[in-house]
């Protein structure tokens, strides 16, 4: 019996030793490479005293352009520095790469494309790359939504006109903002409703090569609460800008969308899952929603 115990003990020690060797022989997980941010530029927009979205800031919107945001860098100072864009441009803008596309605050009567540069002394200034006048369709600063098609070469802009009773669209070249085409959608207000929302939300889905336009109808123009308006989704052929379908969204599916007045000019609101299926903008429960 003692001999058997000795044998079992020896086998146990050997097994533990083998497991320990196997564990110790495993290669340790390599340390992750530090993320080095370089060859980037950061344009920082700040508003004095109060937030600047939706034309609320009357105290000034300022921009500084820096190449490094690491902790080792000195604090970014706006005192007597940066660009004051309050009178000429809007905080709300279409952003792509290092360029901004917008209907500006200043009275140009059209679209502008610009970027921010720094001179040798590090002083920022705005460089306008393109400016084109409106044709028939006229848009107001901040009040439009957008999407990119043709691999980012064409910008589609949608807004409203005639006291928000008609929905208009324009296609522009990305490079020089020349207007390719424009028109008015064949979307009528349903009975009992007298106005569309200011802009709605627009997105391009690559999986079926269609534009999806979220918009809503209201019983009267101006500010309303979400419970009195109805959300719609129009599917649009980007080649012809014809409305393929226009569907009313039941209230139990989606009561409202975000970005009803200013599109995605300040933040992204529409996302897609791994399969490329569009996810609607979220609705926040338990709040009274004012829409324009």
Strand proportion: 35-45%
Largest sheet descriptor: 5 strands, antiparallel
Distance between the termini: 90 Å
Number of strands: 20
Low-confidence stretches: 4-24, 283-292
* Helical/strand content category: mainly beta
- The level 1 CATH classification of the largest domain is Mainly Beta
Helix content: under 10%
Q: So, CATH architecture of the largest domain?
A: 6 Propeller
Radius of gyration: 28 Å
Number of domains: 2
Determine the mean pLDDT: 82
How are helices and strands ordered from N to C?
HEEEEEEEEEEEEEEEEEEEE
The shape, in one word, is globular
What is the third-level CATH name, the topology of the largest domain? Neuraminidase
| Count of separate DSSP helical elements | 1
Helix-strand blueprint:
Layout: H1 2-25, E1 42-47, E2 61-66, E3 83-84, E4 94-96, E5 99-102, E6 110-118, E7 124-133, E8 145-149, E9 154-161, E10 166-173, E11 179-184, E12 195-196, E13 201-205, E14 210-218, E15 224-225, E16 230-237, E17 242-248, E18 271-272, E19 278-279, E20 290-291
Antiparallel strand pairs: 1-2, 2-3, 4-5, 5-6, 6-7, 8-9, 9-10, 10-11, 12-14, 13-14, 14-16, 15-20, 16-17, 18-19
Structure description:
Strands 12, 13, 14, 16 and 17 form a five-stranded antiparallel beta sheet that branches. The protein folds into two domains: 39-133, no CATH class; 134-292, Neuraminidase. It is globular. It contains one helix and 20 strands. The protein has one helix at residues 2-25; strands at 42-47, 61-66, 83-84, 94-96, 99-102, 110-118, 124-133, 145-149, 154-161, 166-173, 179-184, 195-196, 201-205, 210-218, 224-225, 230-237, 242-248, 271-272, 278-279, 290-291. It is mostly beta strands and 292 residues long. The chain starts with a helix and ends with a strand.
């Amino acid at each position: 019996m003692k001999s058997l115990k000795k044998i079992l003990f020896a086998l146990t020690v050997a097994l533990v030793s083998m497991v320990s060797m196997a564990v110790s022989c495993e290669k340790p997980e390599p340390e992750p490479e530090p993320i080095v941010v370089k060859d980037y530029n950061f344009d920082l927009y700040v508003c004095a005293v109060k937030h600047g979205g939706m034309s609320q800031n009357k105290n000034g919107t300022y921009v500084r352009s820096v190449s490094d945001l690491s902790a080792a860098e000195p604090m970014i100072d706006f005192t007597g520095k940066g660009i004051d864009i309050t009178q000429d441009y809007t905080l709300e803008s279409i952003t792509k790469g290092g360029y901004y596309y917008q209907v500006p605050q200043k009275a140009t009567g059209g679209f502008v494309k610009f970027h921010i540069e720094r001179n040798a002394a590090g002083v920022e200034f705005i460089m306008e790359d393109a400016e084109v006048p409106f044709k028939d369709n006229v848009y107001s600063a901040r009040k439009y939504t957008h999407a990119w098609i043709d691999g980012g070469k064409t910008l589609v802009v949608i807004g409203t006109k005639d006291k928000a009773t008609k929905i208009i669209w324009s296609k522009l070249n990305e490079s020089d903002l020349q207007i390719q085409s424009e028109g008015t959608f064949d979307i009528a207000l349903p009975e009992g409703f007298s106005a569309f929302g200011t802009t709605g939300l627009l997105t391009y889905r690559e999986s079926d090569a269609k534009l999806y336009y979220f918009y809503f109808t209201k019983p009267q123009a101006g500010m309303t609460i979400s419970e009195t308006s109805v959300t719609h989704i129009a599917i649009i052929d980007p080649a012809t800008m014809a409305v393929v379908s226009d569907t009313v969204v039941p209230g139990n599916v989606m009561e409202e969308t975000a970005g009803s007045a200013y599109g995605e000019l300040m933040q992204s609101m529409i996302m897609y899952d791994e399969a490329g299926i569009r996810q609607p903008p979220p609705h926040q429960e338990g709040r009274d929603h004012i829409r324009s």
